[in-house]
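Bug: token stream looks shifted between consecutive jobs. Job 1:
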Amino acid sequence: MTRIGMIGTGAIARVHLDGWRSLPVEIVGHYDIDRDAARRASDAYGGAVYDDLDALLADVDLVDICTPTAAHKECVLAAAAAGTPMICEKPLARHLDDAQAMVAACEEARVPLYVAHVVRFFPEYARAKAAIDDGEIGRPAMIRTVRAGSFPGAGREFNSAFYADFEKSGGVILDVGIHDIDYARWCCGEVERVFARGLSFADIPERDHALISLRFTDGGIGHIDCSWANPPGLWRTRLEIAGDRGLIEWDGADPAPVTVFLRDEDDPTYHEERYSPLATEDNPYRAELAHFLHCLETGATPRVTPHDALMAVKVSLAAMESVRTGQPIEIATFQEASA
């Protein structure tokens, strides 16, 4: 049975722990700079409280890093040095240099690094990606997404001070928009250029909002709408992908399943197909952890590679730079101004 250690015991850690306890693993222990938080996690999910990170790393087969973003680097480097495989919550890092150093350290140590870009595991999004891979809509030419909610500080489960501090959180682009940046890149390939408008530098974090345009290397385009400006409790997601043979769409406000509109070569009209992949066991966080566990046990290539996580950070930071400068940013030559 795989022995799991938790680093960080906040809101996302509890989501992970709910997933872990439905899988054939042993939760060995919890490490947090807030010992009381680690004790609460221990009481709720089992496992010991660790006061020393190295001791936890020595006792487990896989460590799950759920700290705030700024602490990811320290934890990843420690796990790499200890030879302990790890899952790290997204975003991989707040700054590009840190993300590059983390990936390099894990590659040099030959230690698996799995990054939790969970949208790839939501069944609706996974089904849409499968439709692309199967050629159902032909070559994808456009992807449009919406991911909009309220400022995380509106809920008791979140540390509003962290999210309000742009230097720590990266605002809505790095916290929310990165989900769809990663997904769009998964579906449509490498991003060549990004142009964005938003409120990242307006010093009003509770209303942070961004519109991001992507240009992919094959000529396709992407549109991402991400927001913290919705009223509390109003969460909205939407997905639309158009190809030269059809269209995929899904709206989180509508309980209808994923819909694919297809055009036959000999028929100019479209026919509609609907897919309902949802099932109780399809919880995306559980699916994500189960997938990483399978990769650890078999050596399979993970759905999210370290390079994927690194590029998600790079494109997100480039979008933030575009907001700051008002100019499009070329991804190949982008370097973060300061860290």
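Job 2, same session, no restart:
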Amino acid sequence: MDSPRWGRLYADTYQRVGELARKARPMLCGFSACVDINIPLDAALAQLQCATEPAPLALAAELERRAAAGIGGEIVVDWPAGPAWLEQHCPGEARVGGTAAQAATTLATLGAPALLALRDRSEPQLAVLSPEVLLATPAGLVNARRVRGSGSGKPAHYLFEYTAGRPAGRVIPPRSTRVIVRFQDDDLEWDDYFADASAQLAAEGGTALLSGFNAAPPETLPGLLRRVAELARRWRDSGLEVVHLEHADYPAPGKLAQVLEALGSTATSMGMSASELERMRPGPEPPPLRAIALGETVGVRRVWVHGDRWALCASRRGEPDRDFRALLAGCLVAASRAAAGRPAPVRWPLPGAELARLPWPASSQVRDWTVTSCVAPHLPAPTATVGLGDSFLAGSLLEFGQS
């Protein structure tokens, strides 16, 4: 397919996303939410590299190394004083963080209903959510704007963004992305009100999202996984079609293995970035073949992968047209966010967006798997890169949440 053809497809998708949002059934979003502090990497490095203590200098070296290679991802830093140091020397902007909260806020921005599991209902956490995100309370489902904040909240995560071609410290990054830095494990956002409400809502719900396990403390993870697996089985037994497990950066391979063993048989699909696919399934094969191999290993029916310039879905469901529409919607929602710098209504055309050629066929069949791919609109100098994968996820799942 040539670029003009992709342009026409995205013009059609632009018209369709609004209708998808209007007709969407509620998406059940668990179990990750936090406050992100967004800091431009160049400004942060100027402060970190002037420090005399070893900890900020070590963080600066790692951030600069990643920027030089165009590596994003998430890292855990053993520096208890880190948050206070950054707050004093590198103030940033507070925004919504966590895959589930990002997806719920994106859907609410598009006009689609999303129920979020949220245990941390502190004022800082509520302040970064879309006011239209649904939360479960003893009185029923209410919009986040109607919930009064309580508690001190969890420590924030720190996101260092950089843009391709713009200097960051002593390097010029080859691609635009961000590095997530956290200084502690985060409790999973297990929410008893959400569990009860979502079990009742599953029969009329659209899709469900499972996320946040990479940051959970190792000692509490097994018990949390049992509770999540039991709840997800209740959703499936009620008729929910899609239970999606979103991947993330795992600091230890053993933790990821625990998650896949506990949830792989319950989830119907799994999603990740191209770099996460590379870490999970390294090798010389092209991404479509590695996505299939991963799907067979985990046991899910669909594997979604999003890259900078492409996205794909490897599926055993035999619904390539539906998968293709979902990919286009996800890519347009993510690109619109990249242009706006935060969750935003879709736009097309997007000034400066590039449409490359796919490095493999748009559709192929491998055994009982169908691989569907699309070109993603790529902005070489996006306003922001935070949350693009979560926005892709939210937009793609809109296709599967229709009434």
